[in-house]
Write a structure and sequence with these properties.
The complex is a heterodimer of chains A (500) and B (251).
Chain A: E1 6-8, E2 14-15, E3 21-22, H1 24-36, E4 40-47, E5 55-63, E6 66-76, E7 79-81, H2 91-101, E8 104-106, E9 142-147, E10 159-165, E11 168-175, H3 183-189, H4 195-200, H5 207-222, H6 228-256, H7 260-281, E12 290-291, E13 294-295, H8 301-327, H9 329-335, H10 343-349, H11 353-357, H12 365-368, H13 389-412, E14 431-439, E15 442-450, E16 456-462, H14 464-476, H15 484-491, H16 495-499
Parallel strand pairs in A: 3-6, 7-8
Antiparallel strand pairs in A: 1-6, 2-14, 4-5, 5-6, 9-10, 10-11, 12-13, 14-15, 15-16
Chain B: H1 2-11, E1 33-35, H2 41-50, E2 56-59, E3 62-66, H3 75-78, E4 84-86, E5 101-102, H4 116-122, E6 126-132, H5 138-144, E7 158-160, E8 169-173, H6 181-190, E9 196-200, H7 202-206, E10 228-230, H8 237-247
Parallel strand pairs in B: 6-7, 6-8, 8-9, 9-10
Antiparallel strand pairs in B: 1-4, 2-3, 3-5
Classes of the chains: A alpha+beta (500), B alpha/beta (251).
């Protein structure tokens, strides 16, 4: 890139003073240039710096095979020229900035509420969840199907609007925000003792992923050295989380095409993996495992043996259950060609995680911007080219095997020593840190900033679902309405991670 | 086809013998907490300050833990002295908000049958509509587990149904966000009477980690009459199952 930007490694603190401040035109051009060259927007948000009255925009960018984040900022008053028409991956970030701060991105094609949140500056109108202008289709036999916020199953709330002609879906619009509980704001405003619990409940099925991102951010800001054993254990727990969720997804995908053997087995297998997590820390979701500076539970030799034995049994059962899927023509036929997202669209929307890897893009924080244990121990990245439900399912299956190998390797070769750092976690004042972790859904990004007093001044969370919900909407175009459950499950996105 | 049959043989019969046999939970599982009798005021004070949700009280009757607010993080049990200990007892459901408060030396008041009328009406068939009213999806994930063959909820005559019109009970998770308040109310109104309301998980009981946030109402009982409270963050599937069976007078 032509202009100087702050370059910083994953979970490495930098001084806020070193973030270049550009005028909005240059800021815009720099972000667009990065996009044209195949880069990504990792995070893009506003905040009001201490002692200043106006909103400052921060963008965190990344580029393939460059192991650093690029950060830049710009002050903005009232409105600016929207990035979205030239750079679609900015679309939801700009809507979010508009909702939070009332800053208008002029020319945004889709300027609608993101989570129906109260505005940070209390000058906006009261809004009721779900009340907005939906895209509508007109014409003979065109009809609309509305689903949610309360769904038929035991799942989170969200509203889906389909524009259909017969069974054919022309457009799906997704309206979320029902789970909004104000976590980002509370991270800064509420007592620090709650923060780890906020991180653990950003998305409950990604407890370890988000807690790791939070701990890395705090440890980066405090210069705390996490013992090697703790880092290995965090990696083991993160991969167990991936394993459990991927196994569950394979079962659920199977259920959605009415193939019951795999669906039944995987439902139980997922539970067995959650119980391995509980073996280590007492909670099936990994609650209480992480703390800033290390982990709260160590693994002794007896437990290590038990963990490895259970893992072997689970993987043998999982292989048996998953192989049935790939060998059953009716399943493969239903998976193939359903919900296709092509590579170009995937790049434009900035999708992450298995959804991106299923489109042939080798995007994975564990290898692109490794932190923690992944700096020393690599996990191979697996991709598929077809971008359909089959690809998203098969990528998951391949990843479960890689995760299991990793867990085995790490557990067998656990470094000796303490599991928690002795030093405190006092934060450096006037700093910024970007902490990214490859959760099972994809890239989790936490950005933390401190004020001159060394207290948190801004905490920004981007869950992988934030990038990927639009991917689901696009995957449905041209499909049939009966494909929706299958497509939806193949993405399996988080509502609460999006709604915060 | 032969592969399907071979897989079936390999995977075996895996449904638990619950409730005939007690479940085996992880050694480190944090269930019902016990407070040491004669806990010193400074011990409860210290833990009350450290508790993230204010679950630990030091009122006139001495120290207490409110399971309606407890996240079961185990922070209070980690500090030395053994003033608080989490046992492996997974049975936690209670019929009233007051019963969720644990005190030293007092037995925890577990839910009992909600009465003959409930048992006669719902004892053999309880259809539940679930509403996720905020929260983090962990409660929902571990409720879904009840439908797997390991628990096989259907064998108890309990089932999650797709419409409030088909439901006898409303099982709510989450702190009730402002954005879900209306949908929750509409779901409740759409259910035929008699109907029961179950608050499952710490969020649904008190707001959990989100206590005090302006974005949430902070508990189902601020909106609807709650018949049974199931603590946990999230509750273990056996905690939920035990609670439901107790309520129906079947445990």
């Amino acid at each position: 890139m032509t202009r100087p930007l702050l370059q910083t490694g994953n979970a490495r603190a930098a001084s806020l003073k070193d973030v270049p401040l550009y005028d909005i035109g240059t800021f815009r051009e720099t972000v667009l240039e990065n996009d044209r060259e195949g880069g990504r927007i990792v995070s893009f948000f506003g905040c009001v710096p201490e002692g200043e009255g106006q909103v400052r925009l921060f963008a965190v960018l990344s580029r393939h095979r460059e192991g650093v984040f690029f950060i830049l900022s710009s002050d903005v008053k009232g409105s600016y020229r929207s990035l979205t028409p030239d750079c679609p991956q900015a679309h939801l970030f700009e809507r979010e900035i508009y909702e939070e701060w009332g800053i208008v991105p002029e020319g945004h094609p889709w300027l609608k509420p993101v989570r129906f949140a109260p505005r940070r500056r209390k000058d906006g109108p009261e809004i009721e969840a779900g009340i907005m202008d939906f895209f509508r289709m007109k014409g003979e036999e065109a009809h609309e199907v509305a689903v949610g916020p309360v769904h038929a199953g035991v799942i989170e709330p969200g509203h889906f609007r389909f524009q259909c002609h017969g069974e054919d879906v022309f457009n799906l619009e997704i309206s979320l925000g029902y789970q909004h509980r104000g976590v980002e704001r509370a991270m800064v405003e509420y007592p620090g003792k709650r923060r780890i619990h906020y991180a653990e409940t950003l998305a409950g099925d990604t407890t370890i992923g988000h807690a790791t991102a939070y701990c890395h951010a705090v440890e980066g800001l405090s210069g705390c050295n996490v013992p090697a054993r703790a880092q290995a254990l965090r990696g083991v727990m993160l991969e167990l989380e991936r394993l459990a969720n991927h196994a569950g997804d394979l079962g659920a995908l199977s259920g959605d095409v009415a193939y019951l053997p795999t669906s039944s087995y995987c439902g139980r297998i997922r539970g067995d993996i959650l119980n391995i997590t509980a073996l280590v820390c007492g909670s099936r979701f990994g609650r209480g495992m992480l703390t800033c500076g290390g982990v709260r539970f160590d693994v002794d030799d007896v437990m290590r043996q038990e963990l490895l034995e259970r893992l072997d049994r689970v993987m043998s059962d999982l292989k048996c259950a998953a192989d049935l899927l790939w060998e059953t023509p009716s399943v493969v036929d239903r998976f193939e060609g359903t919900g296709v997202v092509d590579k170009k669209m995937c790049e434009e929307l900035g999708l992450v995680g298995p959804a991106a890897r299923a489109c042939g893009i080798p995007r994975d924080v564990r290898s692109d911007l490794p932190s923690g244990i992944y700096r020393f121990s690599q996990i191979p990245v697996f991709t598929c080219e077809s971008g359909d439900v089959f690809a998203r399912a098969y990528v998951r299956w391949m990843e479960t095997q890689k995760s299991a190998d990793f867990i085995k390797e790490q557990t067998e070769g656990l470094p000796s020593g303490a599991v928690i750092a002795g030093e405190g976690t006092r934060l450096l004042p006037g700093s910024i840190v970007v902490s990214a972790v490859e959760g099972w859904r994809g890239e989790i990004c936490h950005v933390a900033m401190t004020g001159v007093d060394g207290e948190l001044a801004r905490y920004k969370v981007v869950d992988p679902s934030f990038h990927n919900w639009m991917g689901l909407a696009v995957a449905m175009r041209g499909g049939e309405i009966s494909d929706f459950p299958l497509c939806n499950k193949s993405f399996n996105l988080s509502y609460c991670g999006h709604d915060l | 086809m032969i592969k399907v049959i071979l897989a079936r043989i390999k995977q075996g019969y895996r449904t638990s013998a619950f409730p005939k046999e007690e479940p085996v939970l992880a050694e480190r599982f944090r269930g019902l907490p016990v407070l040491r009798e004669g806990m010193l005021p400074e011990e409860s004070e210290e833990r009350a300050i450290a508790c993230p949700t204010g679950a630990i009280g030091k009122g006139p009757g001495g120290a207490s833990i409110d399971l309606g607010k407890c996240l079961f993080c185990g922070g209070c049990a980690a500090s030395p002295g053994g003033a608080v200990n989490f046992t492996k007892d997974y049975r936690l459901a209670a019929l009233s908000r007051e019963d969720l408060i644990c005190r030293p030396g007092e037995a925890y008041k577990l839910a009992e049958s909600a009465g003959k009328e409930i048992k006669r009406t719902f004892g053999r068939s309880l259809k539940l509509r679930q509403v996720s009213a905020g929260g983090c999806n962990a409660c929902e994930a571990d409720l879904n587990v009840l439908n797997t063959l390991a628990f096989d909820l259907g064998r108890f005559g309990i089932q999650f149904v797709a419409s409030p019109r088909h439901a006898d009970g409303l099982l709510v998770t989450g702190p009730v966000t402002r954005n879900m308040r209306l949908a929750l109310k509409k779901t409740y109104d759409a259910m035929p009477s008699p109907k029961v309301v179950i608050a499952s998980g710490t969020c649904a009981i008190s707001g959990g980690p989100y206590i005090g946030h302006e974005e949430v109402i902070g508990g189902v009982d601020k909106e609807l009459p709650v018949d049974i409270y199931i603590p946990g963050c999230p509750p273990h599937p056996y905690t939920v199952l035990d609670g439901l069976l107790r309520f129906l007078g079947r445990r």
